[in-house]
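Exercise 7.
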Amino acid sequence: MSKTRITTGLTAAATRAAAGASRRKGMGLAGVATAITATAALALPAGSALASAHTSSGALPTITIAMNGHAFAVSGALQSGGVQVQAKVPAKHLSEPMFIRLNPGTTYAQFFRVFHSPAVADPNAVVSVGSIVLNFDARPGTTTVQTSLQPGLYIGFDAEANNPANWPYEEFTVAAAASPAALPHPKATVAAIEFGFTGPAKLHRGELVRFANHGYLVHMIAAIQAKNLAGARKIARLLKEGKLNQASKLAIGETGFLDPASHGAFQQERVSARAGYWVLACFMETQDGRDHTQLGMERVIRIVK
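Solution. The predicted structure, written as tokens, is:
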């Protein structure tokens, strides 16, 4: 598995095995992208709930992404500043739109030479050619998030497929806007850092929240729901101890607020996850193979109506 989605029924071991297999095949930055977007998916009990798709709104320029698993098309207001990004996915499909902004002076040809280079092995090495500035789950229908884009060359991927070499993509340019739009001010900001999370311990359903990576490394903000506070605290403890299978048995729901993204990346959405106790977690791996949860990237929060 090579995607940021925390998918019901998949285990952490299977996720890492898939990512490791890609590295062993020498896929270069394609393998790096696999590692960047590979999460330790918790195997949830049958009948467990996934949080509903992200939603947000506002009078912002709109970028539309159309995906069907085989094609990836970007259209709309390709301009710098605040934008809302709408991902449109047909029924029975799951997608994972990702925007990578190329570093100034980097060409598409240079990007793909690195992308296919077997020399690149560290997931964070994407900074040599660009930054993951947007990355979220898109389920059937329309999923909308808000972000702010800088002008430059971009590549958009649908990172849902296991093999990054098969990710549908499109190259596009974000032009400098004469008057960049400002994003609505969020009610709260939840951020990943090395190695933990900052932000309020309580979020409200329906409120606009910014989810960001303030850390230097690639991080994600996943969330696992527990039955109650005691269960959430136990899940957090088990994650810190590296006991993912035991933690999965206590999970009753899951969602992703920010899929793996580079330093400075952020996106805003109106919280649609169910009310209850949740554990924020980052399942990215260190060079020695430990999940970031084992270094302190797990935190209990509560979502209320």
